[in-house]
Specification:
single chain, 232 residues, alpha+beta, seven-stranded antiparallel beta sheet, five-stranded mixed beta sheet, 31% strand, globular
Length: 232
């Protein structure tokens, strides 16, 4: 299924979701998704013939009543759902993002109910989706989702504060640190409950080599020294 088809289906789910039914005459999630899509298109920066960078951090400014509605229905969950839709849209357009797509909500006393404003920024994260690609960065594959280790230190875990959040109850909140150095990428277990395995061997710290398999909880992670090392 094409990414654009998935994007359209996600928007349709938002329209028919409990979130949408709760909004009635207020701002609707599908309107926010469309505004973020427009912001990506309007601020797309072509760096080369094959690389166009778009914003990845979005702040949605809402009236007090709309913000309260979002808060009551779960701002974090709604933001994640909209961010996922925006990520799929960026992939469908072959846009590059320099970090994970995030959506946050804030109030604006000058806005009336039903009106909103989207602010967008381009920020590099410590772990960017592989569509931001550069062959110079190490890469992870986690359940088919690829990430570039574009920062010096990347933390993996269940907690929202982790750079890469993995939904696996066998993983600790802050489970594993990957540190990129001139001499290679060092994997360090952060005192996790169930430990970290590299090629089936439990480690406290280890320098990774191209093609290593890391296991944390029930999740297997493939590691490559650079994007060019991964099979397409």
């Amino acid at each position: 299924m094409r990414a654009l088809d998935r994007f359209e289906q996600r928007v349709e789910r938002l329209v028919n979701s409990a979130f949408a039914r709760a909004f009635r005459s207020e701002v609707k999630p599908v309107e926010i998704v469309s505004a973020i899509r427009r912001a990506m298109d309007d601020r797309a920066a072509a760096l080369s013939q094959t690389r166009t960078v778009v914003p990845n951090e979005f702040t949605v400014r809402l009236s007090a009543s709309d913000l309260q509605r979002v808060t009551d229905w779960g701002a974090e969950a709604l933001g994640q759902e909209i961010a996922a839709a925006a990520t799929e849209y960026a992939a469908s357009q072959d846009y590059a993002v320099l970090g994970p797509v995030t959506v946050a909500f804030t109030g604006d006393e000058e806005l009336r109910t039903g009106r909103f404003h989207v602010q967008s920024e381009t920020k590099r994260g410590t772990a960017a989706p592989a569509s931001a690609g550069s062959a110079s960065y190490p890469m992870l594959d986690i359940d088919g989702q690829r990430y570039l280790l574009s920062g010096t230190v990347t933390v993996l875990g269940r907690d929202a504060s982790a750079d890469i959040v993995i939904s696996d109850t066998g993983i600790s909140r802050r489970h594993l640190e990957l540190r990129t150095t001139p001499h290679g990428t060092i994997a360090t277990d952060l005192g996790s409950t169930n430990g970290t395995l590299v090629e089936g061997h439990r480690i406290e710290a280890a320098t990774l080599v191209d093609g290593n398999t890391i296991t944390i909880g029930r999740t297997q992670i493939m590691f490559w020294n650079a994007a060019d090392g991964a099979e397409s």
